[in-house]
Amino acid sequence: MVEYLFRLWDGNKFIYFDLLNIPFNELVNIDSNYIHQFTGKKDKNKNNLYKGDILINPDDNSYWAIFWNTDECKYHMLSPDCDEGINMDFADNFLLEGNIIENPYLVLGLFNK
Questions:
Q1: Is pTM, for the whole model, over 0.85?
Q2: Cα–Cα distance for residue pair 60/41, rounded to 1 Å
Q3: Quick one: fold of 5-112?
Q4: What does the alpha-carbon distance between residue 97 and residue 47 come to, in Å, rounded to a whole number?
Q5: pLDDT tens digit string along 36-49?
Q6: Considering only CA atoms, which of 86, 63, 73, 75 is closest in space to residue 36?
Q7: C-alpha dihedral over 102, 107, 111, 112, to 10 degrees?
C-alpha cells in the first residue's frame, strides 16, 4: 500500500503528517520548497526518506541528496561529486545524515553546478 506522508518545515522544526491530518493552519504562507513528500523508500536503518533528505554512502562517505527527477517522474539521488544522479533503488544501502534545510553544507556542491 502506498503511504502518502509529508513533512513541513515551519521555520523551527519539521511537522510530519499524512493526507488525513493536514495541518492547514501551518500551510498558510509556506513556500512549497518547505513541504517534502515521503519517497516510499527507507535507509539502511529503516528511516523514512523524504525529498530533500541527505544520505551518506557508508562505502565511500559520499553525500547524496534526494530530489524529484521531472524527466523520469520519480525520485533520484544526486551527489556533489557525481554529474548524474542515481535512482532510489539503492537508498537502502545508504544512511540518513540530514536534510537540505538543516544541513545544506553537506551537499553545497550540488547548488554550484
A1: yes
A2: 21
A3: SH3 type barrels. (2.30.30)
A4: 11
A5: 999 999 999 999 99
A6: 75
A7: 140
Q: Give DSSP secondary structure letters for 46-111.
A: --EEETTEEEEETTTTEEEEEEEETTTTEEEEE-TT-SS-EEGGGGGGSEEEEETTT-GGGGGGGG
Tell me how crowded residue 14 is: count the other CB atoms within 10 A of its CB: 16
For the record, the C-alpha cell of 37 comes out as 513528500
- Which whole number is the average pLDDT over 14-18? 92
Q: What is the mean pLDDT of residues 6-25?
A: 88
Q: How far apart are CA 64 and CA 53, in angstroms?
A: 8
Rounded to an integer, what distance in angstroms lies between the CA atom of residue 14 and that of residue 21?
Answer: 15
> What is the chain's length?
113
Q: Pick 54 or 25 by higher pLDDT.
A: 54
Pick from 46, 79, 52: nearest CA to 66: 52
Q: How confident is the model at residue 111 (pLDDT cuts 50, 70, 90)?
A: low
